[in-house]
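Q: Convert this sequence to structure tokens.
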Amino acid sequence: MKIGIFNFPTTYSMRLDEIAVEAEQRGFESLWVPEHTHIPASRKTPFPAGGDLPKHYWHTFDPFVGLAYAAAKTDTIKLATGICLVIERDTITTAKAVATLDELSQGRVLFGVGGGWNREEMEHHGTDYDTRFQRLEEEIQALRAIWTEDEPEFHGEHVNFDKIWSYPKPIQKPHPPIIVGGGSRHTRRRVVDLADGWMPIEVTVDSVLKGVEDLWRRAEEQLRDRSTLEISVFGARPKAENLARYEAAGVERVIFGLPNEGRDVLLPMLDKLMGFVAE
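A:
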């Protein structure tokens, strides 16, 4: 099983490039970072996890700048977005950022995407909350076209452009894996129809495994080869029995979270996590 780690990079935590180096040395497969351009000060949209929203949500770095620094200091660790809010971004600009990172890292990008949860944040970018998932689907289709075609064009309700020239193209062919985050049946339908992987959050192991069963059923109905879909469990708890159940169900990757702390806290945590995995 592949083991990844997740962190909100901020000015008051261990540098992301240093985390990447230490994680790579210990054998972690991937490093995941989130995206929030900002958090609206109104705080009208409640935090999905409940309680107060942690401040690192509005202190986190730009994911592609941070991952580029990590790429420059490492050789093998995968560089992943968990998740990129493509619904708040310009499609063509995003395509270039992802392709550039894939080129500079020699093909190490995992492109996690999602629809997000903060209504006001989306609206500040001109995105309608109620149609965000329709836009997400168009974004995925348009990005694929830009990465794989010499003169791509796309004409949808939310994404629209005539023929363009856009380079570089990603090193990974046909493009970096597109991994859709979320836990709903609609998300799993999008995964089967449009993506290369699914990334549920571990609320409970049972809820994830129920979703896995649904994903495989949908893949079978759509004649989608299961080997072309990769499941990554986000926020997994380091428990041996959980990993065993995931592996038996066909999960290929688990992602452990790291707090926003310095080297003195994170390095022992990395050692402990890899010790757990080895055991």
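The chain is about 40% helix and 15% strand.
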